[in-house]
Amino acid sequence: MAILNRWTQDFTSSSVEQTVRLGVRLGELLQAGDIICLDGELGMGKTAFARGVGRGWGASVRVTSPSYTLINEYPRLKDGRILYHIDSYRLQTEADSYSLGLDDIFDSDGTVIIEWPTRIEGWLPADRLWIALDEISNTRRSMRFTAAGSRSATLLNEFKRRAFGL
Amino acid sequence: MISTRILAIETSCDETAAAVVENGRTILSNIIASQTDLHAQFGGIFPEAASRQHIESIYPVVSAALSKAHMGIDDMDCIAVTYGPGLVGSLLTGVNMAKGLAFGKDKPFLGINHIEGHIYSLWLESGEQGRGEADEIEFPILTLVVSGGHTELYLMVDHGQYQHLGGTLDDAAGEAFDKVGRLLGLPYPGGPHIDEAAKMGNPTAFKFPRAVMRDGFNFSFSGVKTAVMRQTKKYHSKETMPVNDLAASFQAAVVDALVTKTARAAEAYGVTAVHIAGGVSANSALRREMSEKLNIPVRYPPLALCTDNAAMIGAAAHRHFINGRRDNFDLDVIPSLQLNTKNNG
Fold it and tell me: What is the predicted ipTM?
């Protein structure tokens, strides 16, 4: 069900594979400095979506969960740029983020995808694309995309055109 | 035989560790300033504390490693340190310490891959066994590195020669243990507590997905984690949850997937033995099932060397050192370091 609004888009994914494909579409459009937040409980498909993003973006190795390692870096071959995949699952307070060097990552204009973003919300740049994932049934997931600034709105609208023909 | 004494340092993730290792086999000292107590309070890593802790612990830990070995830095042939994969800030603490010592004392310096360290934990002598079992093994061997951050299968065709056969497509096995532990209300770290709870539970009480893909040697543990989460939502509280049965059924699914893929790879590549390393290799059900299902030798590190430690870094460094490898002081930490077929360093 689409909400015809420049800032949000609702979508239903009916399988993990579809979630990955949507991630690929988004990954193809990402530029330096883009921030993608994946918000949802365990098992909602955050890492599956991130895997697609990595593939679409051009990561040279597959994207896996960074829960334990906290930050995974994926350099791509064509221009050596880095996709940062951050997971705040093991973080407790926003103060933790300081020691992770998040400000360095955002300052470096890296492309960033973040799981469990609410735990580090105060550190996030204002202009970000927020994706809330929720459970509809065992395999179906609702996805709400919300843009929070001009760049993320442009990104969202490009994504809507490419992924859904809207 | 060339005799080497290596001071090794490991700070890639949660632990600050240092060790003195002789000839890549004999542990003269192995110090770990465990932060697990600190993490247990918070149900996971507490990086602000962890990173500060590395800086505070590194000097006393290195000093303790040398004094326990009854040696000084001048007695060392080489200073080795983990330079990846891991968290950039944590890695830097260890690497800077190692560079400082090597530069100040004019010693050879080596950067070691953390995963290769786990692989070489099998070459270390345990106190009880007296000598490293894996010392005279015949190649090729299959190595499964299974921990909180990794679940990877490597064909090891010779010392330092690896072929990556497969790995997890989503969550590492140890990560699934920790997340399910939290769902079941068990203390951190989840692995040992699930292992204990599972001993009192029925592994067939719940049928959780195995995710054993037909082709290739990859793993997936995200589906089983989600299935356990869905099951736990059916109970009103953690008091009414059949924790032991859930733990046993979850563990059976993970162990089954690990054993099935490892057995298939062992057969496909005609290996002489299977080595299992990393934190999850301490799991009792995994050890039992692997040994039962495989008809070739299955070897594990001593229990104390399954989780992150510096002795394993010293064991891996020994091979590089005797092969003549030396690193420059411009070696930088590489958070996303891969274990390559060639220069795995």
Answer: 0.79
